[in-house]
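Example record used in the benchmark description.
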Amino acid sequence: MANNTLQKAKAAKQDEFYTQLADIQNEMNAYLDYNPDVFRDKTILLPCDDPEWSNFTLFFSQNFERFGLKKLISTSYAIESKHNLYGSQLSLFETDYEKTSKKYDANITRSRGKIFVLDRDCNADGCINYHDLKWEYLNGDGDFRSDEVKALRDEADIIVTNPPFSLFRDFWKWTLDAEKKFLMIGNVNSISYKDVFPFIRSNKVWLGATGFMTDMVFGVPEGTVVKASDKLKAEKMGYFGNYTRLGNSCWFTNLDHGRRHEKLQLMTTSDIFKYSKHSELRGKNAFDHYDNYNAIDIPKVDSIPSDYNEVMGVPITFIDKYCPEQFDVLGMASSAGYNKDIVGIELLGGKDARPLINGKNKYVRIFIKKK
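Model output (structure tokens):
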């Protein structure tokens, strides 16, 4: 399930993955289909952003009136910030102002971020859109952890962004601490983080509408090394040039959408062993039982039996199919050691908390039970 490109990017703190408009639009449409007024009268903050190239800003500004937004705020990093995507390249906002006003300053723009605000028809053309964005310099470099960006967070109703992957944990805490509605992109493996999983288990946070198996394409800066197979997949999806696809990125949110209420279609245990498309299951008589937990192991999410009502361990990819009306999530077992608050069920003998079958580690398992 791990995607080497994303893992290497995290390790090297290379955060230059830029979300494409189609992926943003497809995700947002799911919330609008579920609740057409989800963004109405809301102030939306887009931190870690840059409106010149940002598809987040483009999407929300061009739909400002259709969504009934109250206000759109976007903050960008300073040029000298290590999280600035385009380095010393000036945006059209800056070059236009360089010609028409004294606002732009070549020295200030290197060390200070910018704030872009959209809340009214500034050019008197009868509509509110991208062309009405106005900007000012921030006091700092645009880091979301600064007091001035925190103040913008506190003003906002909904936070939407693709945060730097190396700062995902920090951004997660920053967002959850404010108790705001949000949509953010992260690594699928973030589900297993001890500061993320409890929110998913308690049904306070869930995954977005874009499924695990849906490739997302991201823009990358000139010169970024992209795996040939990922570049080819991006090209097959119509993206040529500085793009890559990431197969293990997903959306995290606390905004409701219809897909998470769709129940899995399940077969009986006997039918699974007769007709499963997975060869390791066909012909079996029973699911394997863990050595150290009172639960059976379900190796594939599509093989959860309809006629078993006790505790089951399933792969982490289950969370992508999790319907809270169909299952309870009890906990998670991994190599992190035993903590009942995380694992959720008792460890039976020994000290090895990894989910083991005949002594073999099954890696991360989510413990669930049918309702």
